[in-house]
Amino acid sequence: MADSIQKKVQEALDDIRPQIQMDGGDVQLVAVEGTTVKVRLVGHCAGCPMSQMTLKNGIEAHLKAAVSQALTVESV
User: Considering its fold, how many domains does the chain have in total?
Assistant: First the structure.
């Protein structure tokens, strides 16, 4: 089951990746640990003051809708 959740998370990240890349950034899946998704923001997102908003309002919201799980997203 964990593999299927990880696959769904990766697919959801791939869905929103073009939007993040339009601003010069990117997101990489690091791990899925229970209901916590660990990602790495790279490129312009790495030091951007808006990265927490992108993380919570963009990435986390999209993952919750796409994966149908109560997920939290952390940047590592």
Answer: 1
Quote the percentage of the chain above a pLDDT of 90: 63
| Cα–Cα distance list, 70 to 6, 23, 48 (Å) | 14, 28, 26
pTM of the model: 0.87
CATH number of the domain that residue 9 is part of: 3.30.300.130
Cα–Cα distance list, 25 to 4, 17, 44, 46, 50 (Å): 26, 9, 5, 8, 12
Encoded amino acid at 9, one letter: V
What span, in angstroms and rounded, lies between the C-alpha atoms of 51 and 73? 12
